[in-house]
Amino acid sequence: xxxxxxxxGGAGFIGNCFCKLILKERPDWKVVxxxxxxxxxxxxxxxxxxxxxxxxxxxxxxxRREGIFEIFKKERPDVVVNxxxxxxxxxxxxxxxLFLQTNILGTQVVMDACRAFGVERFHQxxxxxxxxxxxxxxxxxxxxxxxxxxxxxxxxxxxxxADLLALAYHRTYGLPVTVSRxxxxxxxxxxxxxxxxxxxxxATHDKELPVYGKGLNVRDWLYVxxxxxxxxxxxxxxxxxxVYNLGGHNEKSNIEIVKIILxxxxxxxxxxRFVADRKGxxxxxxxxxxxxxxxxxxxxxxxxxxxxxLTIAWYKxxxxxxxxxxxxDYLKYYDKMYGNR
Length: 341
Ligand code: NAD
Ligand code: DAU
Fold this sequence. Notes:
- Helices cover 43% and strands 16% of the residues.
- It has a domain at 3-187 and 223-247 and 283-302: 3-Layer(aba) Sandwich (Rossmann fold), CATH 3.40.50.
- Helix 2 (65-75) packs parallel to helix 4 and helix 6 (195-204) runs parallel beside helix 8 (254-265).
- With 341 residues, it is an alpha/beta fold.
- It has helices at 13-25, 65-75, 89-94, 96-117, 154-173, 195-204, 224-237, 254-265, 290-296, 304-317, 319-325, 329-338; strands spanning 3-8, 29-34, 55-58, 79-82, 121-127, 177-182, 185-186, 209-212, 218-220, 222-223, 243-246, 251-253, 272-275.
- Strand 5, helix 5 (154-173) and strand 6 (177-182) form a beta-alpha-beta unit.
- It has twelve helices and 13 strands.
- The termini are far apart.
- It has a seven-stranded parallel beta sheet, sandwiched between helices. A two-stranded parallel ribbon has the order 7-10. Strands 8-13 form a two-stranded parallel ribbon.
- Bound molecules: nicotinamide-adenine-dinucleotide (NAD) and 2'deoxy-thymidine-5'-diphospho-alpha-D-glucose.
């Protein structure tokens, strides 16, 4: 069945993977990518998609109401998936304002356009960070969809506000909204400010690997394509007004991750440097995805041991992509974040 799907943030890590998946597996769908190309978007990421006649790219900011409404008027999307966001916790600690503007007010603009032009679905891509954290000594505890919202960082707070606003637009205006909340993603094309690509990049260049605190914080890792398949399942089988948790029971401490990367790359553990901890650092994330499995038939298909090998191999083969990301402003960012840590 023909559809036009409008994706915001489709030049970023997860949004681009989602566009690739739709172009590959939904041959009748047209993909409209709206992305303003912040520092987190390397234009080379969308090079292949730009050649596809079913793909259209608009460089536009989701905070700019006039521009977003123009695109909706022209493209008349059936389905909208909102990936666009400021996504890095450390940057939100340095400068919260931009996170509130993009993640909350930008989401409002996109939803207002959905109301004005009418859509079958608005899907908000959310994060497990809205549930706060779990203690390290209670491995029996997990995040469920009804776990109270209890955020720690300006980033997670802005994402929680966006989720709640989306659910309010459903209840108040009847906008057909769904929300997914996912755990930490990894895979190709992730900007090297995030743990896994940063450590691969540094280890490859024999640079120190900065581990926050003692490296004991735990994250629940999911291969990016599994996340995207989960979002597609929510779009096609999910119930309007509902929240779905996505995750794969793949908990690992940061120090475990760093040691796996060093071992895969054949680099010494002497490259590890323990540095000052992140402010307000969440201890442990762990998703219970049983609702998505029961209602949508969704389950991850890539085991961490395979996914991490695929990911490292991709960064090795695509060093040019990492080099493009890590020139210019990145060097200033790195120095500011890690210089005196
Ligand atoms: P990313 O930082 O790699 O990409 C974000 C994209 O949004 C970039 O292409 C950027 O240019 C674009 N963007 C930012 N501000 C914009 C604006 N004002 N207007 C238009 N485009 C804008 O992020 P990601 O890791 O791909 O995350 C995508 C979404 O998934 C985010 O909403 C994030 O909160 C959520 N999420 C991420 C993870 C993860 O592990 N990375 C996990 C769960 C949820
Ligand atoms: O849980 C989902 C969230 O996962 C997403 O909503 C966010 O967009 C995404 O950035 C990610 O947030 P984290 O803060 O968990 O990811 P990050 O890669 O920044 O850090 C992962 C862990 O590694 C965290 O405990 C902090 C630690 N870390 C990170 C960096 C960048 C280090 O020890 N050293 C580092 O240099």
